[in-house]
Write a structure and sequence with these properties.
Oligomer: single chain
CATH architecture of the largest domain: Alpha-Beta Barrel
Number of strands: 10
Strand order of the largest sheet: 1-2-3-4-5-6-7-8
Largest sheet: 8 strands, parallel, barrel
CATH topology of the largest domain: TIM Barrel
Helix content: 40-55%
Strand content: 15-25%
CATH class of the largest domain: Alpha Beta
Number of helices: 11
CATH superfamily of the largest domain: Phosphoenolpyruvate-binding domains
Structural class: alpha/beta
Radius of gyration: 20 Å
Length: about 290
C-alpha cells in the first residue's frame, strides 16, 4: 500500500470522494473524526455502505476502530461482523499484546470463508509508553501488516507545545518516534507507513515529507485529503530508472553466481544492494 486515505465513516459525501481518489486503501474512521454521540450512527452507516459495495472494485478497505481502552472496540467490530473488509487499523496500541487481543476479537466477527484474511495496521506511537514497545511487534501474530506512527496524540500525552518546528518539520521527540516506528516495522517484517501531513494545502511541504519518508525506508504514507493521494502514489511508485537499475543489479548477481560483490554501471555493489533491489521489485509486483 502506497497510500492510505482517512475518511470519516459518517460522511457519505467524503466517502464518495475518497473512493474516487486513487488511494490504494481507504481507512473508514470510527475514531477521532467521529463525535462520541455520532458513533452508533456511523457504525450503522458504515455497515450499510460496506455491505452495498462488497463486490465493487476499488481500494482496499480498512476500518479504524476506537482504541482498546475506550470500551468501544467490540461494538465497532460487531458492526463489521461477516462483512468483506481487508483490515482494521488499531489506534493507541502499546505493543504486540494489543495486536494479539484485537486479532482474537476479529476472529469472532470474521466471515467463515475469509478466516484469517483481515489484517491489522497499528498506530504505534501515540503514547509515551508505546514508544518502549516498538521493538516487540514480531510477537504480534500473523495478522499484523504494518506499523505507522502518530504525532498529535503523542504530543498531548507528553505535554509538548508543538510537534513541528517553524520550518514544518517534526521536532526531535517526534522524529525519534518516527525512526523507532520504522525500525520496529522492519524488525517485525511488516510495512512501515509514514504518518499524515495535516496541512493539505501545502503541496510543496507535503511532497518533501513524502520524499524524505521514501528516502529513509518508509514504503507508504497516510493521507487526510484526496488531494494528497496522487503525490503519495507518485513518490512511492518506483521510477522506470529505479526499476531498471534494480533489474540490472539482480541480473549481475545472477550472472556472477555466488559472488559477494559485483560491478554495475561503474560501481562496486555488495549483497545488501541485491536485497534492496529485490525488495523494490517485490513492491512493484505487489501493486
Amino acid at each position: 500500500m502506497r497510500s492510505m486515505l482517512f475518511v470519516p465513516a459518517d460522511s457519505e459525501k467524503k466517502i464518495g470522494k475518497a473512493l474516487g481518489s486513487g488511494a490504494d486503501a481507504i481507512i473508514y474512521d470510527l475514531e477521532d473524526s467521529v463525535a462520541p454521540s455520532a458513533k452508533p450512527a456511523a457504525r450503522a452507516m458504515l455497515r450499510a455502505h460496506l455491505a452495498e459495495t462488497a463486490s465493487a472494485p476499488g481500494p482496499l478497505r480498512f476500518v479504524r476502530v476506537n482504541g482498546l481502552d475506550t470500551g468501544l472496540t467490540e461494538g465497532d467490530l460487531a458492526a463489521m461482523e461477516g462483512l468483506s473488509i481487508d483490515g482494521i487499523m488499531l489506534p493507541k496500541a502499546e505493543g504486540a499484546a494489543c495486536v494479539r487481543k484485537l486479532s482474537a476479537m476479529i476472529g469472532a466477527i470474521e466471515a467463515e470463508d475469509r478466516r484469517g484474511t483481515i489484517r491489522i495496521v497499528v498506530v504505534a506511537t501515540e503514547t509515551a509508553k508505546a514508544i518502549f514497545a516498538l521493538g516487540g511487534y514480531s510477537e504480534a501474530g500473523p495478522r499484523l501488516a504494518g506499523l505507522t506512527w502518530g504525532a498529535e496524540d503523542l504530543r498531548t500525552d507528553i505535554g509538548a507545545a508543538t510537534n513541528r518546528a517553524s520550518d514544518g518539520r517534526h521536532t526531535e521527540p517526534f522524529r525519534v518516534a518516527r525512526s523507532l516506528c520504522l525500525f520496529g516495522a522492519v524488525a517485525a517484517g511488516v510495512q512501515p507507513i509514514d504518518t499524515v501531513y495535516p496541512n493539505f494545502r501545502d503541496e510543496a511541504g507535503f511532497r518533501l515529507e513524502c520524499e524524505e519518508a521514501l528516502r529513509d525506508g518508509f514504503t507508504g504514507k497516510m493521507a487526510i485529503h484526496p488531494a494528497q493521494v496522487p503525490i503519495i502514489n507518485e513518490v512511492f511508485t518506483p521510477s522506470a530508472e529505479a526499476i531498471a537499475r534494480a533489474e540490472a543489479i539482480i541480473a549481475a548477481f545472477a550472472e556472477a553466481g555466488d559472488a559477494g560483490v559485483v560491478g554495475v554501471g561503474g560501481e562496486m555493489l555488495d549483497r545488501p544492494h541485491l536485497t534492496h533491489a529485490q525488495r523494490l521489485l517485490a513492491r512493484v509486483r505487489s501493486k
